[in-house]
């Protein structure tokens, strides 16, 4: 093997990206330098925050902006081909969207069998777990609201919340078919479709904890139904990232400050760095829940590098439940 394929940004989209904004290019096989390993990727994650990187990124986040000609990035699982680590060692890293990658050893995480399948390491469950346990401090009996409840984070958040003692879990989504799956498969007791207008009916006793993936009107609706002392963990801004009329690099939401004050509501942003200290705990619990069948990992696998741009297009247009994984 002397070449590799990778997905590059061909043009910055004016709205939501489509397959024509990307190219699948054949390039020379990467040559690992000192302290690097050559990894053959087997799976990589497709995630909606790529939209923000196309728009120029957000200062203070760990992801760099992407310009035309740049190869896309994302979490990946692969096998070591050569370098300081033994051949065929399974590792996770952040140079997805390519068949082969030269990755610094310190940026690789060697995988063990804590999780029953390597692809489970590409779930966004760590974010959901950190937000529930550290960001918002879930308590027994809490009524929990998860906006964007069918996505990569939300599809696991409800299942986790039930295992962690929540009394009632409510989610939101944009389509009725997703709502049906959320109730039947993902542990949601009630689902609000689209604009959040039914939230008061779904939470007659108010809301104690919010895991917000969306922002916008759904965040405002959650504040209106929040109980005294409610805790909000803010993990995403899909209302702007998935809007064709917005670059996805800012996410302004109008909220009623008087309600925040009167109800003593806590809003806390949860970033990827908040997950590092809890990763081992999450892996142990997630692995046990998967093996016992108490939790499932909802995801769609799409085969082939040539189909990766289409996978991103489908994800941003809400065509999947759970995570979207490209399998090579």
Automatic annotation (TrEMBL):
SUPFAM superfamilies: GroES-like (SSF50129), NAD(P)-binding Rossmann-fold domains (SSF51735). Keywords: Oxidoreductase. This is Enoyl reductase (ER) domain-containing protein. Residues 15-326 form the Enoyl reductase (ER) domain. CDD domains: PGDH. It comes from Allokutzneria albata. Pfam families: ADH_N_2, ADH_zinc_N. GO terms for molecular function: oxidoreductase activity, acting on the CH-CH group of donors, NAD or NADP as acceptor. It comes from the Bacteria. SMART domains: PKS_ER. PANTHER family: PROSTAGLANDIN REDUCTASE, PROSTAGLANDIN REDUCTASE 1.
